[in-house]
Amino acid sequence: MDFRVLHGLVSRAKPLAISSVSLHDGLDKARRVDAVEWLSDALDALHIPDTVLFTAFASLDRFAAAGPVSKGPGAFAVVMAAMVKAIEMHCTPLNLGRARRLIVAVSGNQSSWPPVERAQQALELCLDHNFDVPTAYDLLTELSKQIWEFDSG
Questions:
Q1: pLDDT above 60 for 18
Q2: In what helix (H) or strand (E) does residue 96 lie, and over which residues does it extend?
Q3: Cα separation of 123 and 118, whole Å?
Q4: Number of neighbouring beta carbons within 10 Å of residue 61
Protein backbone atom coordinates (compact mmCIF):
# COMPACT_ATOMS: atom_id res chain seq x y z
CA MET A 1 0.00 0.00 0.00
CA ASP A 2 1.25 3.46 -0.89
CA PHE A 3 1.97 5.48 2.27
CA ARG A 4 0.86 8.71 0.58
CA VAL A 5 -2.54 7.11 0.05
CA LEU A 6 -2.58 5.96 3.68
CA HIS A 7 -1.75 9.49 4.86
CA GLY A 8 -4.56 10.81 2.68
CA LEU A 9 -6.96 8.30 4.22
CA VAL A 10 -5.94 9.32 7.72
CA SER A 11 -6.60 12.97 6.95
CA ARG A 12 -9.91 12.08 5.25
CA ALA A 13 -11.00 10.17 8.36
CA LYS A 14 -10.59 13.19 10.65
CA PRO A 15 -13.88 14.89 9.68
CA LEU A 16 -15.76 11.70 10.53
CA ALA A 17 -14.53 11.96 14.12
CA ILE A 18 -15.54 15.60 14.68
CA SER A 19 -18.26 15.54 17.30
CA SER A 20 -19.29 19.18 16.99
CA VAL A 21 -21.18 18.61 13.73
CA SER A 22 -24.88 18.05 14.41
CA LEU A 23 -26.54 14.88 13.17
CA HIS A 24 -30.29 15.34 13.23
CA ASP A 25 -31.35 12.20 11.42
CA GLY A 26 -29.00 9.69 9.87
CA LEU A 27 -25.93 11.26 8.34
CA ASP A 28 -25.85 14.94 7.52
CA LYS A 29 -24.74 16.00 4.04
CA ALA A 30 -21.16 16.84 4.99
CA ARG A 31 -20.57 13.55 6.78
CA ARG A 32 -22.22 11.63 3.96
CA VAL A 33 -19.81 13.23 1.48
CA ASP A 34 -16.86 12.52 3.79
CA ALA A 35 -17.97 8.90 4.14
CA VAL A 36 -18.34 8.23 0.42
CA GLU A 37 -15.03 9.92 -0.37
CA TRP A 38 -13.24 8.03 2.40
CA LEU A 39 -14.77 4.71 1.32
CA SER A 40 -13.84 5.39 -2.29
CA ASP A 41 -10.25 6.25 -1.37
CA ALA A 42 -9.90 3.29 0.99
CA LEU A 43 -11.28 0.77 -1.50
CA ASP A 44 -9.10 2.22 -4.27
CA ALA A 45 -6.06 1.86 -2.00
CA LEU A 46 -6.99 -1.77 -1.41
CA HIS A 47 -7.66 -2.34 -5.14
CA ILE A 48 -11.19 -3.51 -4.44
CA PRO A 49 -13.88 -3.19 -7.13
CA ASP A 50 -16.55 -0.50 -7.15
CA THR A 51 -19.31 -3.02 -6.45
CA VAL A 52 -18.05 -3.10 -2.87
CA LEU A 53 -18.33 0.69 -2.65
CA PHE A 54 -21.91 0.56 -3.94
CA THR A 55 -22.88 -2.14 -1.44
CA ALA A 56 -21.13 -0.41 1.47
CA PHE A 57 -22.72 2.94 0.77
CA ALA A 58 -26.17 1.48 0.16
CA SER A 59 -25.90 -0.30 3.52
CA LEU A 60 -24.71 2.88 5.21
CA ASP A 61 -27.61 4.86 3.73
CA ARG A 62 -30.14 2.23 4.81
CA PHE A 63 -28.68 2.18 8.32
CA ALA A 64 -28.73 5.99 8.53
CA ALA A 65 -32.33 6.05 7.29
CA ALA A 66 -33.33 3.84 10.22
CA GLY A 67 -32.17 6.39 12.78
CA PRO A 68 -29.42 8.77 13.78
CA VAL A 69 -25.83 7.66 13.42
CA SER A 70 -23.68 8.38 16.43
CA LYS A 71 -21.38 11.36 16.40
CA GLY A 72 -17.62 11.28 16.61
CA PRO A 73 -15.63 8.06 16.39
CA GLY A 74 -18.87 6.07 16.38
CA ALA A 75 -19.68 7.49 12.95
CA PHE A 76 -16.28 6.36 11.67
CA ALA A 77 -16.89 2.87 13.09
CA VAL A 78 -20.22 2.63 11.24
CA VAL A 79 -18.56 3.62 7.95
CA MET A 80 -15.84 1.04 8.53
CA ALA A 81 -18.42 -1.61 9.45
CA ALA A 82 -20.29 -1.00 6.20
CA MET A 83 -17.02 -1.36 4.30
CA VAL A 84 -16.07 -4.56 6.12
CA LYS A 85 -19.48 -6.15 5.54
CA ALA A 86 -19.39 -5.27 1.83
CA ILE A 87 -15.89 -6.74 1.53
CA GLU A 88 -17.09 -9.92 3.29
CA MET A 89 -19.85 -10.23 0.69
CA HIS A 90 -17.88 -9.52 -2.46
CA CYS A 91 -14.23 -10.34 -1.82
CA THR A 92 -11.80 -12.89 -0.43
CA PRO A 93 -10.61 -13.29 3.17
CA LEU A 94 -7.29 -11.82 2.02
CA ASN A 95 -9.06 -8.57 1.10
CA LEU A 96 -10.82 -8.61 4.46
CA GLY A 97 -7.50 -8.94 6.29
CA ARG A 98 -6.04 -6.06 4.28
CA ALA A 99 -9.09 -3.92 5.13
CA ARG A 100 -8.72 -4.70 8.82
CA ARG A 101 -5.05 -3.70 8.73
CA LEU A 102 -6.03 -0.48 6.94
CA ILE A 103 -8.58 0.36 9.64
CA VAL A 104 -6.02 -0.22 12.38
CA ALA A 105 -3.39 1.82 10.49
CA VAL A 106 -5.77 4.73 9.88
CA SER A 107 -6.96 4.84 13.48
CA GLY A 108 -3.46 4.41 14.85
CA ASN A 109 -4.14 1.59 17.32
CA GLN A 110 -5.44 -1.95 17.73
CA SER A 111 -8.25 -0.83 20.03
CA SER A 112 -10.10 0.60 17.03
CA TRP A 113 -11.27 -2.84 15.92
CA PRO A 114 -13.82 -3.62 18.72
CA PRO A 115 -15.93 -0.49 17.96
CA VAL A 116 -16.01 -1.53 14.30
CA GLU A 117 -17.18 -5.02 15.30
CA ARG A 118 -19.91 -3.52 17.51
CA ALA A 119 -20.97 -1.19 14.68
CA GLN A 120 -21.05 -4.16 12.31
CA GLN A 121 -23.35 -6.04 14.70
CA ALA A 122 -25.62 -3.01 14.95
CA LEU A 123 -25.63 -2.68 11.15
CA GLU A 124 -26.49 -6.37 10.72
CA LEU A 125 -29.32 -6.19 13.25
CA CYS A 126 -30.73 -2.98 11.81
CA LEU A 127 -30.69 -4.32 8.26
CA ASP A 128 -31.90 -7.77 9.36
CA HIS A 129 -28.72 -9.33 7.89
CA ASN A 130 -29.98 -8.34 4.43
CA PHE A 131 -27.11 -6.64 2.64
CA ASP A 132 -27.82 -8.10 -0.76
CA VAL A 133 -30.24 -5.48 -2.01
CA PRO A 134 -30.04 -3.77 -5.36
CA THR A 135 -28.10 -0.54 -5.42
CA ALA A 136 -28.94 2.40 -7.66
CA TYR A 137 -26.21 1.15 -10.00
CA ASP A 138 -27.83 -2.32 -10.16
CA LEU A 139 -31.23 -0.81 -10.93
CA LEU A 140 -29.79 1.45 -13.63
CA THR A 141 -27.92 -1.47 -15.20
CA GLU A 142 -31.04 -3.63 -15.25
CA LEU A 143 -33.16 -0.82 -16.65
CA SER A 144 -30.64 -0.11 -19.41
CA LYS A 145 -30.57 -3.84 -20.33
CA GLN A 146 -34.35 -3.89 -20.59
CA ILE A 147 -34.37 -0.74 -22.73
CA TRP A 148 -31.65 -2.20 -24.95
CA GLU A 149 -33.59 -5.45 -25.37
CA PHE A 150 -36.82 -3.54 -26.09
CA ASP A 151 -35.12 -1.39 -28.75
CA SER A 152 -33.39 -4.43 -30.28
CA GLY A 153 -36.44 -6.68 -30.36
A1: no
A2: helix 93-107
A3: 9
A4: 18
Nearest residue to 124 via CA among 54, 49, 66, 72? 66
CA 75-137-43 angle, to 5 degrees, is 45
Q: DSSP character for 68?
A: P
Distances 152 to 138, 139, 148 between C-alpha atoms, Å: 21, 20, 6
C-alpha 152/C-alpha 76 separation (Å) is 47
Q: Residue type at 132?
A: D
Q: How far is CA 70 from CA 12, 29, 42, 49, in A?
A: 18, 15, 21, 28
Q: What is the pLDDT of residue 8?
A: 57
> CB-based contacts of 50: which residues, under 8 Å, 6+ apart?
43, 137
pLDDT given at position 15: 43
**Is the pLDDT assigned to residue 142 strictly greater than 90?**
no
Polymer length of the chain:
153
33 contacts 20 by C-beta, under 8 angstroms = no
